[in-house]
């Protein structure tokens, strides 16, 4: 199955592109993360300077894209990608992505929704490949990836799995609905 409907959805969730003015919301979301979620996201302790992290997530330029999921005006999840500098001139650039959902709102389909929208945004911006690093113990994130039909793009290296996804191949496997289309954000 390529695209699934999350089990418990996401009614009332607004997903939009993050802007520099969203920095405080992004910082607050990361401050609320528990130690375990922070470990899964950062592979260690949460960064000390969360204000800097939040500012960098809210940057809007060709090398950065971040989407936020809001419920009732509260930011409950962020999906972002970053393009390594040397990739920007590439015809089919590669980006690295990551996700985080507020612990109280996990397993309601928000992570899946954000990832789907991030892939749409990447395609709309001409991105060719999306990569991510996921700890082998991160069963939830790996389930999100497998449910999207991306198990073939995972490669294990010790305690980490690398995802290296070719978006063109994925679009062909998904059919015409996955071809690049305008993204309203
Ligand atoms: C990974 C993360 C972003 C997923 O967000 P989410 O909103 O919980 O994800 P979803 O609800 O869309 O999907 C979770 C799916 O994982 C599976 N799942 C849920 N709990 C699980 C568990 N304990 N073990 C295994 N699989 C599980 C289910 O298939 C579930 O889908 P379902 O609800 O349709 O049955 C979120 O858990 C998170 O922020 N984790 C901490 C940070 C992190 O790990 N980031 C990823 C680094 S790249």
From TrEMBL:
Transmembrane segments: none annotated. This is Acyl-CoA synthetase. InterPro entries: Acyl_CoA_acyltransferase, Bact_Acetyltransf, GNAT_dom. PROSITE patterns: GNAT (PS51186). One of its GO terms (molecular function) is acyltransferase activity, transferring groups other than amino-acyl groups. CDD domains: NAT_SF. PANTHER family: AMINOALKYLPHOSPHONATE N-ACETYLTRANSFERASE-RELATED-RELATED (PTHR43877). It comes from the Bacteria. Keywords: Acyltransferase, Transferase. It comes from Rhodococcus opacus.
């Amino acid at each position: 199955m390529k695209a699934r409907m999350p089990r418990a959805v996401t009614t009332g969730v607004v997903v939009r592109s993050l802007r520099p003015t969203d920095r405080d919301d992004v910082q607050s979301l990361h401050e609320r993360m528990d130690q375990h979620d922070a470990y899964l996201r950062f592979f260690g302790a949460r960064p000390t300077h969360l204000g800097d992290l939040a500012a960098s997530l809210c940057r809007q330029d060709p090398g950065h894209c971040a989407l936020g999921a809001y419920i009732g005006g509260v930011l409950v999840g962020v999906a972002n990608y970053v393009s390594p500098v040397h990739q920007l001139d590439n015809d089919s650039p590669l980006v690295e992505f990551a996700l985080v959902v507020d612990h109280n709102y996990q397993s309601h389909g928000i992570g899946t929704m954000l990832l789907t929208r991030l892939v749409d945004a990447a395609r709309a911006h001409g991105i060719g490949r999306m990569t991510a690093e996921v700890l082998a113990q991160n069963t939830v994130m790996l389930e999100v990836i497998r449910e999207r039909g991306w198990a073939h793009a995972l490669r294990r290296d010790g305690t980490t799995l690398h995802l290296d996804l070719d978006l063109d191949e994925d679009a062909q496997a998904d059919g015409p609905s996955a071809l690049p289309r305008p993204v309203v954000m």
